[in-house]
Amino acid sequence: MLSGPWKQRLIRYANTGTDNRLLMGDGLKSPTIILGRKILQNKTMNPTFSFHNKIKGEVRYDEIMSAYTSMRIGGPADAFVLPANLKDLQLILKHRNHTPIHILGEGTNLLVRDRGIRGIVISLKNCFKSVKRPVFYKTPDGRERAVVQVGSGVKLSYLAKYAARYGLTGIERLVGIPGSVGGAVVMNAGAEGTEIGQVLRSVTRVTLDGNVQTLKRGELTFSYRKTSFPPGNGVIIEAELDLEKGEVAEVHRTMDDHLSRRGSTQPLNMPNSGSIFKNPPDDKAGRLIESAGLKGYSIGGASVSIKHANFIVNKGNASAENVVQLIEHIQKVVEEKTGTKLEQEIVIIGE
Ligand SMILES: Cc1cc2nc3c(=O)[nH]c(=O)nc-3n(C[C@H](O)[C@H](O)[C@H](O)COP(=O)(O)OP(=O)(O)OC[C@H]3O[C@@H](n4cnc5c(N)ncnc54)[C@H](O)[C@@H]3O)c2cc1C
Fold it and tell me: Is 345 marked active-site?
């Protein structure tokens, strides 16, 4: 007989809209049928962590991740934690007992698999939200620039608009990227020739043992959709950007033009996670996928967007498995037809 919390947990799994057999662990001797789905349990989870009652923020168990990803896909996370501040984050990291952690920004570049995430998901939705007033300075050759200090939980689009108010130029073409500053730093997010790495002055992270560490620009390496950090993972909590003073009207005009271009070329009215593949050198992944005849091709509820072939859209009932199969199919067909192996841009996590 299942205990109340376990039963609830299994019902939530059953509701995630995934396939009929869900492998959960080996605690159950025989499969259990809940809501018509066959469920196997293969581990015994201790549902509480010692930080649970110590933090100001929230801890939720078996939280369905589809609510936190722009693709609207993803099974449950064992523990979903929303720290309220730095102290909470340090407590979580220190008291997690080696449980694996996953950091969630706005979930706009993530595909979470259907069986969810084993371990702790730390969501920065409720913390590191401040943007400090720009600090202006003059360069030796007389140009005006400003340093902006921003929390990693701030949305990149908000930051771009904030900088524009001061006529600061350098991130106006990042205004249409829907993620957080932390996610943008990790992914070296970019658009139309601008990448966030070009304007980063420093990044502050909390290391996995809870220490705060500021990394100068020279300690980071930026490449296409990737920032490399010195050894030791961590949670990015803050960034400093160094931006040039321009004209307020000009910066706003660039942002508006950029947003209207995106609106007319991207399927923004359907759940998606942006570009699925990196652009190969001197080419576009979208052009290759379209030339392979795959626009509109679907597996289950996942479909290659008609509007932009490098986007996969969730037509409403897609599972992560559908998306993964579609990614593999696109890679296979494009390689057969064009000789190019497309490299995945989105991050896939979970099981
Ligand atoms: C409609 C649409 C358009 C898009 N257009 C673009 C585009 O033009 N250019 C572009 O580059 N991207 C684009 N993207 C992808 C995405 O928005 C970016 O990659 C964005 O920077 C991801 O930020 P996020 O907060 O959503 O990160 P998430 O998706 O939550 O996470 C991405 C990765 O970063 C890690 N991470 C996030 N925050 C932190 C943190 N604070 N500390 C440590 N690790 C962290 C996560 O663990 C994960 O590995 C688009 C996405 C969508 C849906």
Answer: yes
Q: Quick one: pLDDT band at residue 49, thresholds 50, 70, 90?
A: confident
Collect all residues with Cβ–Cβ distance below 8 Å to 186 and sequence separation of at least 6. Answer: 105, 227, 236
Q: Is 275 one of the catalytic residues?
A: yes
Whether 156 shows a pLDDT value over 80: the answer reads yes
The secondary structure of 108-120 as a DSSP string is: SSEEE-TT-EEEE
CATH of 135-251, one of 3.30.413.10, 3.30.465.10, 2.40.50.320, 2.40.10.270: 3.30.465.10
State pTM to two decimals: 0.88
pLDDT, one tens digit per residue, over 165-213 is 999 999 999 999 999 999 999 999 999 999 999 999 999 999 999 999 9
CA–CA distance, 201 with 24 (Å, rounded to integer): 44
Residue nearest to atom 47 of ligand 1 (CA): 103
Structure tokens given for 30: 């025989």
Domain segments of the chain: what residues? 4-123, 135-251, 267-349
CA-closest residue to ligand 1 atom 35: 183
Could you report the per-residue pLDDT of 259-277, keeping only the tens digit for each? 999 999 999 999 999 999 9
**Domain 267-349: which CATH number of 3.90.78.10, 3.40.630.10, 3.90.220.20, 3.40.50.2300:** 3.90.78.10
Q: What CATH number should be reported for the domain whose range is 4-123?
A: 3.30.43.10
